[in-house]
Design brief:
Length: about 350
């Protein structure tokens, strides 16, 4: 039996829609009929074939890791899942044997493999996923939301890393993850949430998703001016760095309150320089963020949507799976939020 799949067939720019064999689940895996997939920034890097992709991806390979689908077969015994269940899944497959895994700190596994990066992905009509990675979907939440649970999870992990109630928050980088993080911060009780970028499209989208956020183009307005307009006497309590931009990171450090806390999700370029004296004398706390806490972050993602968090507007384009090239080019243009493809 054959299926459609998006394959990184050659070590060059692009993806190729191919007819490939439907996979068979190994012991401890489920075969998923994929309903919807979403395009991640990682997928865009692979499509565009940048230096990271050249050093990381082995061709040919099916890519992709953001999805929602239905279990059609289970190989082995499962007390938690049944054929017919609608599921999404954690995109990081851990070893289960290292110190952190045995302690239940799965998100800190040093042997993590990324679905669609280090192992076969889900941009296909069917995919095999370890049962230990599956997440049972609440039918009251639209399926397309589960297709973006992976990046929503990045936003949740970052935003909830520190105390948020009553805090003033600075978010640098208004991509979809930064925008979702802004909405989460307001949902859980932050006071002022400022999100910055240099692209007005992204800032406008941030206001659409979370009208109460202060969206700032730092090419036109300084952070100092923003603080004054908000009546802030000191710096920001919490910083969420989502851009991977050195200038944005240093601006954040300059605008934190003494004892402020920074969560770093954005990947900085090698050689990025900061003034460490500002961190030492400012008593700043910096925490690196990678992926999601398994599965506490997933629980919080679900319950926030159940309790009224609305981030649906971050999905700006809904396309057919066969129109994937249009979706990737839209992502590269910067004029999109999340893009969901339906099979």
């Amino acid at each position: 039996m054959k299926m459609r799949a998006l394959v990184k067939k050659y070590p060059e720019r692009g993806l190729w829609e191919e007819m490939v064999d439907v996979p068979s689940p190994k012991e401890g895996e489920a075969l998923i009929k994929v309903h919807k997939v979403a395009i991640c920034g990682t997928d865009v890097h692979i499509y565009d074939w940048n230096d990271w992709a050249k050093a990381t991806i082995k061709t040919p390979m099916i890519i992709g890791h953001e999805y929602v689908g239905q279990i059609v077969e289970i190989n082995g015994h499962s007390k938690s899942f049944n054929v017919g269940d609608i599921v999404s899944s954690e995109g990081h497959v851990v070893c289960g044997k290292c110190r952190n895994c045995r302690a239940g700190r799965f998100h800190l596994c040093p042997n993590t493999e990324g679905i669609g990066v280090n192992r076969t992905g889900i941009f296909a009509e069917y995919a095999c996923i370890p049962l230990s990675n599956l997440w049972l979907c609440d039918p009251s939440i639209p399926e397309e939301m589960y297709a973006i649970f992976d990046p929503y999870g990045n936003a949740t992990h970052t935003a909830l890393s520190f105390e948020m109630v009553g805090e003033d928050v600075l978010i640098t980088g208004a991509g979809p993850i930064g925008i979702m993080a802004a909405a989460i911060c307001k949902h859980v009780g932050a006071r002022n949430v400022v999100i910055t970028d240099l692209v007005d499209y992204r800032l406008d989208l941030a206001k659409k998703v979370c009208p109460s956020v202060t969206a700032v183009n730092t090419g036109k307005v300084s952070i100092d001016e923003v603080k004054q307009s908000l009546g802030m006497k000191e710096g920001f309590d919490v910083g969420l760095e989502m851009s991977g931009n050195a200038k944005a990171l240093n601006s954040m450090i300059d605008n934190m309150i003494h004892g402020g806390k920074i969560a770093l999700l954005g990947i900085q370029n090698p050689g990025t320089v900061v003034d460490w004296n500002k961190i030492v004398f400012g008593c700043l706390k910096i925490k690196g963020i990678y992926g999601r806490e398994m599965f506490e972050t997933w629980h919080k993602m679900t319950t926030m949507l159940q309790s009224g968090l609305d981030i649906s507007s971050v999905i700006t384009h809904r396309l057919n799976f066969d129109d994937f090239e249009k979706g990737f080019e839209l992502m590269l243009s910067g004029n999109s939020g999340k893009i969901v493809l339906s099979l």
